């Protein structure tokens, strides 16, 4: 059986963590330990609630220890990872090509923060 590495994590489908969490609900003790160790490598904030349940009612002492260690890692990853709800886009684009994904801010603008969060208006006057 192969091992899971951080490099492997980049090639895994997006539903891997939720699938592992679902598998924990009906796993035997040995499989629980294997899944917890896999989540230590590839887990993210989506696994926190499931691992908390394992920590509260571990199927054995080693699983409780693993769950406690894992929760610290998952919580830190959750704090550090941006989510789609946290990503912002500029409300206006001035003189940049369509192919450019990111553009630097040139100079300080008094309304810099407002540019990021203000609703933009379309040509017909409605907000988008």
Folded structure, characterized:
There is one protein chain. The chain is mostly helical and 128 residues long. It has one domain (1-96, 109-121). The chain has six helices and no strands. Helix 3 (29-42) runs parallel beside helix 5.
Quick overview:
By secondary structure, the protein is mainly α.
Q: Could you estimate the helical fraction of the residues in percent?
A: 40-55%
Order of helix and strand elements from N to C terminus: HHHHHH
Number of domains: 1
The helix/strand class is mainly alpha
Share of β-strand residues: under 5%
Average pLDDT rating: 76
Q: Which stretches are poorly predicted, pLDDT < 50 over at least 5 residues?
A: none
**Rg, Å, rounded:** 22 Å
Q: How does the major sheet shape up?
A: none
Per DSSP, the total helix count is 6
Straight-line distance between termini: 51 Å
Rough outline = globular
Topology of this protein?
Blueprint: H1 6-9, H2 16-24, H3 29-42, H4 48-56, H5 61-80, H6 112-117
Provide keyphrases for this structure.
mainly alpha; 128 residues; single chain; 6 helices; globular
């Amino acid at each position: 059986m192969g091992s899971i590495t951080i490099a492997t994590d980049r090639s895994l489908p997006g539903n891997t963590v939720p699938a592992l969490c679902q598998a924990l609900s009906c796993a035997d003790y040995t499989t629980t330990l294997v899944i917890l160790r896999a989540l230590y490598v590839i887990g993210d904030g989506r696994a926190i609630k499931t691992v908390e349940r394992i920590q509260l009612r571990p199927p054995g002492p080693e699983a409780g220890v693993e769950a406690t260690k894992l929760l610290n890692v998952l919580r830190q990853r959750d704090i550090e990872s941006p989510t789609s709800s946290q990503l912002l886009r500029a409300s206006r684009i001035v003189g940049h090509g369509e192919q450019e994904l990111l553009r630097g801010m040139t100079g300080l603008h008094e309304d810099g923060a407002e540019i990021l969060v203000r609703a933009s208006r379309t040509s017909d006057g409605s907000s988008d």
